[in-house]
Every structure is written in C-alpha cells, then in structure tokens.
Backbone:
C-alpha cells in the first residue's frame, strides 16, 4: 500500500461520519438527486514518460504528442504527469515500440507502419495504398473491429494501442521530372517507405528508405529523384520546393494516415478505471485535433507553395494510378498469405472498405464534385 | 463554503505533515520526478440536467447526447452527474436554447441552425449549402476562428457553445418523381428547413417545415412531394423507402452538419478548471465518435436500402446544382446584409472555405476519384 493510499484511509476515518450529510449539500446551486454515491477518486499520482518517433516539437506530429501529454495531465487534474521525449532523447525514433514494451517508458506516440518488421499487420492500422480516408478509418476503428483487432495484434508485446492522430490525405510527393506514363517510373529512385515503396518497386522504380531529416540533401545532391513526405504543412517547412519542381497528387499510398499511442499494458493496468478512461479518451481528442490542424495548416501552406514559390501541381496519369492499384492488391496478397494476423485484419478492413467506399462516393465525392465549381 | 470543501480542509490539517514524504513514494513503479506538486482536485460534485432537441435515444443524435452525458460523468470520476432529457420530457425540442439560457438545465444538445430566429449567424455553425465538409468545419472550429466566433454569437444569451457531433455529409432527400431539370423544382412541395429551404423557394419550389416524426405520413398522404432528413442510417429507420422511390445525392444543403452542446455560462463558471476542461473535451470526443458512427452505420443502411428495398439512387442534374449554388450566395447575402454578427462569421468562413476547398480538391477529391475504380 502506498503512503498516498494510507492518506485516503485516514481521510475515510476522519470524514466518514460526515459523508452522509455532505452529499445533499454539494453542488451549490445545482439540485442534487437523492441516493447518489459520492465520487470515490484515488488521489494516487503516476509519473509517466512518453517516447516518440518524432523530432521533439515537430509540427503536427511532435506537437500532437505534446498535446496528448498535456491532455492526460489536464484531464486527470495532475494525477498523471507525462514527460515527453523526442526521437533520440531517451531512445531512438524506431526504438519507441521496444522501449514501451519493456516499460522504459509508459507510453509512446508514433505510426503503426513503422513496426511492420515485427508485426506484418501493423501498416493496416496506419495507412495502406488506396485505403481509408481519415473519417473512414475512424469509423472502422471505433464503430467496427479496428481497435479490437489492433489490441489483439499488439497484445503479444505487452502493448495497448489507441488511435491518436491523423495527418489527413497526404501528397504523392516531389518529383524532378514529370510523370507522364509508367515508363517514367522505371528506374526512378524515390524515397517512399512501406507498402507504397513495395508497389513502386513492382512498377519498376527503386524505393529508398531515408529519415525525414536527410531528404532535402538527398534531393539536392541527386541521390534520389523524388520523395514523398507528408503534405504542404510539413513539406513547406522542409523546403522541398527548392529542390523539386513538381508536386504530385493524389497521395495514393497514404490517403489518411492514422497515428498511434502505445501504452505499456502493466502501466495501464495499474491506473484506476477513471484514469484509464482519461488516457483512452485523450487519444481520441488528439485524433480529432491533429486532423483539424493538418487541414487548417495544409491549406495555408499550399497557398504559399503555389503563389510564393511557384510550385507546379500535377496529377499522376490514370494509367499509372491504375497500375499502382493493381500492384497494391498483389503486395497485400503477399503480406496476408504469410501472416494469419495480417490476413484477419485485412479481411475485416477489405469488407468494410468495400461498403464504406460506396457511401463515401455517394455522399462526399458527389458533394465535392458539385461544390468544386462554386 | 460547502461541507465538501470543509472536508478538504480537514484532510489538509490531518495529512498535511505527511505530504512531503508521501510525494516521492507515490506512483508505485513509475519514477516520481522531484519537486512535483501533489494534484489538488476539488471533490465537490455538480448535478446537471441536459435538455436536447432530439427524441430520447434517437439513433446517432439522441444517443450522441447520452454519450456526452456519460463521458462527462466518467471523465470527472462522478464529480459531475448529467441527467438527460429527450425532447418534450422537460421542455420542448425547440425550447432547449431558452431552457439552458435561463438555467432550467445546465447543458443542452442540438443543432445551431435551429436558433436562426434568435441568432441569424447560427446556421453558419452547423451547416450551410455548399459549405464545409466535416473535416473542414472542424479545422475552422478548432484551428481558425470558428469556436471563438461561436462563443461571441451566443454570449448575449449566457450560453457557451461547443462543437459536439457531426452527421457527416447528408443526403439530398427522397422524391416521388425524378428531377431532370429546374422545371421539376417548380411547385415542388418539399420538407427542407433553413437556408436550403430558402434556396428551394427561390428556385420556384415550396419549402415546408415539419418535425421528423410527421414526415412519413406527409409523404404517404401526398401532402408533400419530397423530403430530406439525414442520411441512410436515420432515413432507413423512418421507412421513407416505402413512400418514395428516388433517393437523391448530393446533400448540397447539409454537406457535414455539426451538432452543438450549449452550456449555461454561470453553471460553467462554477466548475473548477479541471472540470471545465472535461466538459469542453468530452464534447470533442462526441464530435469524433458521432461522425464515426454515422459513417459506419450509413454504409450498412445504404446497402440495405439499395439491395433489400430496391431504392433508386439519383444525382441532381448539373444545371439544378448550379442554380442552387447561385441562389445560396443570394440567400447568404441577404442574411449577412441585415445582421452584423452573421456578416462577421460569414467573412471568416468564406475566406477559410475559399482556401480549404483548394486543399480538399487537391487531396481528398483527387484521391477519391483515383480510388473509385479500385
């Protein structure tokens, strides 16, 4: 028993007799219903560390992790404190998963697709090519099997994952030359990770994996011909407009990338129920707010890129997109044929996607086409 | 001073001396940083009433109000209780605004466009024809001037509004005959409220205002020729497929209707800071969850409507949509010319919409077109 718990017992002994009379007087001007139990709230405090896959304070992503820590502290009235570490401060960016798994930190913030080497199903919880929009993946997460399957996939690692952010639809990337046909993909050296990189490879390109901080120089030196990153908000900050002329749409490979919080299962189990709910729901708030931030900042940054820096916007040709779609299904078939958990997750996602796409086409796509000319 | 506050003082007197040694031991296995203050949380309780504009437990909307009450209770550890009243239980649906304004209830849940008679700017905080998608209005609310302007508009009524739900893009409505040109709008008696109704009127139609519960019979008896309601999820439950053959898209008049929570300003001021944050953030969680629910349920209901009930999907002709767009700008010009607050809100929304539309077209619209054929 902690000293703080002893303190609670002390309170109980002293104040217990007065409790019954206290109840009907509480709440000042707001009428108190009869027979309501007084709130029993542990005042035990928890001091958590958060590791992230983002550079400290990185706009949108790193600041989203900061916001999650702030919300957990605020909503818990300070009963949970969260100290945030940027990538490399406590552990390296891609060591966040292991650090939370072994309890070096109690919570982490990152993207599920970073863990595909450990968990082949992981990318399905962030973004797959031609997959969900942000609103669709949230529907699958919260109102279908998404979060349930995600918990199942991470359970062997002692981790509890929660959706905790979304970048919105990303851009297709920065290119030094125009892409007019599949011929232009052949031999193209492009920084593009995950399933998208595998698709590019099967289309004849050369996918390269590089951390964000090295992309500008790799483009400048000609080590790579093209790179994707996120969208206007983050891409403007990296200055890619100085080293590439064409900015391509759509972000076929990441149409609405979900971010994650991962919580050490033992640390979570030690929290009283109300604090568990606060952690879980703080993640939902960051999920909402991060998408709002990306939507608001992307439109501002897009205007700057086009009007101030003269960036040329281009759309991938239909036959290139068609080929990418076909290859995506091949890549997914390969991943799911060798991993039962990935197969289970894709079965759920595929069925949901098939139906929700019809609704999105009928509603959002139909509306956006009509509004386009207003 | 309440009895409960006295109880806190009692705790302070008894446990005060032990506090310094308590701090470093709390949190069990999680390391406690030095110099952290113990959380000081009021245990005072507040008993709130929530009035709503929805029939009790109405799917999506009424259940969203229930969820908001549940979240406030859970996240506050029971320090706020919220008793939910459906429309007509404590006050009528459209008396919710006044009831919360005068403090009969501490909180309300509804849609801002219901209050346009009192506040001409109100519809801009829910949905206007050819306006924001759900993700766009959230960006304007949280990361631009939206919530700030909303607070300003409701302040004279002693109310603090928060976004608290979204239905997603709605449908264009149920029609007994096909709409092939503007000629088919002339003389059409349609249930469509708000700015959408005004647009229909200027296009030669006859807008009718009726509560949801009367729509089925009005369609069946031929008293009206057409009706909009929400989308597949809610429209299936009302059985409109039995009395109308054609289901039209897009929902040009409500492309992403935001719902609201309104809080009595005095009741809010009486809450300690951490409970104020819990109320504000519980609204954000419902905002996220309600859209996820509508997205998940709409796609299921759409399948049922089309495959089981043989509903015919139709799209409004381009020239009809074009005329509706033009008339929308006329309606908005009239509203804003006579009300300075509406003019201020529209100025903010118009500027944001002009830019964010470009981003949405480049990202989401471009992606949805590419995915459409997958």
Residues:
């Amino acid at each position: 028993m902690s000293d703080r718990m002893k303190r609670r017992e002390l309170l109980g002994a002293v104040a217990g007799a007065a409790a019954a009379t206290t109840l009907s007087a509480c709440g000042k001007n707001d009428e108190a219903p009869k027979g309501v139990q007084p709130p029993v709230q542990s005042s035990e405090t928890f001091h958590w560390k958060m590791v992230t896959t983002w550079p400290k304070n990185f706009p949108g992503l790193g600041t989203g992790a900061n916001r999650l820590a702030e919300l957990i502290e605020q909503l818990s009235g300070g009963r949970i404190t969260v100290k945030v570490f940027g990538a490399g401060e406590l552990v390296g960016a891609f060591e966040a998963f292991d650090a939370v798994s072994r309890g070096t930190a109690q919570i982490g913030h990152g993207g599920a697709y970073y863990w595909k080497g450990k968990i082949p199903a992981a990318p399905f919880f962030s973004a797959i090519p031609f997959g969900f929009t942000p609103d669709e993946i949230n529907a699958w997460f919260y109102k279908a099997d998404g979060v349930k399957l995600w918990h199942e996939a991470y359970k062997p690692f002692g981790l509890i994952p929660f959706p905790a952010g979304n970048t919105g639809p990303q851009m297709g990337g920065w290119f030094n030359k125009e892409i007019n046909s599949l011929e232009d993909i052949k031999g193209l050296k492009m920084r593009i990770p995950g399933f998208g990189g595998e698709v590019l490879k099967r289309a004849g390109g050369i996918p390269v994996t590089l951390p964000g901080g090295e992309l500008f120089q790799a483009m400048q030196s000609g080590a790579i011909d093209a790179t994707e990153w996120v969208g206007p908000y983050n891409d403007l900050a990296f200055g890619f407009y100085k080293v590439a002329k064409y900015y391509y749409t759509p972000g076929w490979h990441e149409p609405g990338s979900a971010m994650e919080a991962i919580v050490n299962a033992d640390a979570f189990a030690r929290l009283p129920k109300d604090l568990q709910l606060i952690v879980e729901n703080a993640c939902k708030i960051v999920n909402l707010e991060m998408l709002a931030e990306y939507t608001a900042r992307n439109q501002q940054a897009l205007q700057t890129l086009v009007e101030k820096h003269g960036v040329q916007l281009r759309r991938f040709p239909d036959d290139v997109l068609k080929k990418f779609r076909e290859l995506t299904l091949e890549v997914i078939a390969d991943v799911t044929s060798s991993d039962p958990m990935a197969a289970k997750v894709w079965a759920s996602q595929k069925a949901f996607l098939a139906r929700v796409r019809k609704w999105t086409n009928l509603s959002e796509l139909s509306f956006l086409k009509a509004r386009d000319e207003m």
Chain A touches chain B through 119 residues (CB under 8 Å).
